Amino acid sequence: MSNLTSLQAALNARGTGPAGEAAGALGRRGCPLSDLRDRLRRAGLRPTRQRLSLGWLLFGRGDRHLTAEMLYDEAMRAKVPVSLATVYNTLHQFTEAGLLRQLALDGSKAYFDTNPSEHHHFFLEEEGQVLDMPDCGITVDSLPEAPEGMEIAGVEVIVRLRRRVAARRA
Ligand SMILES: [Zn+2]
Q1: How far is the CA of 31 from the centre of ligand 1 (A)?
Q2: In a 3-state reduction of DSSP, which class is residue 157?
Q3: Residue 57: CB partners within 8 Å, gap ≥ 6?
Q4: pLDDT tens-digit readout, 33-88
Q5: pTM over 0.85
Q6: From the CA of 27, how far away is ligand 1's center (Å)?
Q7: What's the start-to-end Cα distance of the chain, in Å?
């Protein structure tokens, strides 16, 4: 919650004189909000208020995996005025800009990973929960030849999990 309060303070302070402290924080090196603004710009996205608000929610809590609905719920709880359609659009823009990675886990829902580097996942299907696999989790050392004229761009492994029956009953 304090993260969000400081986001709103920083956004509101933008360009206003009296709130000098918060406005000063925006220009300070290492300020998470100006880092986010730089990150959006470097990715070729104009740092609009909506992108900053959603980016703040997305990237402010370490590596994680969310659907548009999950981010929309967080935005509602944080009183960020966005529609579900805007959340979808923003997630796709962030993905195209390389800030997020879309995971092909489940045909019905798109999951987005805030860590866009290549890594593998566990997927607990029944609960829709996605977990990063530890680095040592898997080795892929035998890949087929790519078809003529193509090369392998990446390998992502999804290991599907279910709870053991005893655990499910408990
Ligand atoms: Zn991940």
Answers
A1: 25
A2: coil
A3: 4, 71, 74, 75, 78, 80
A4: 899 999 999 999 999 999 999 999 999 988 999 999 999 999 999 999 999 999 99
A5: no
A6: 31
A7: 33
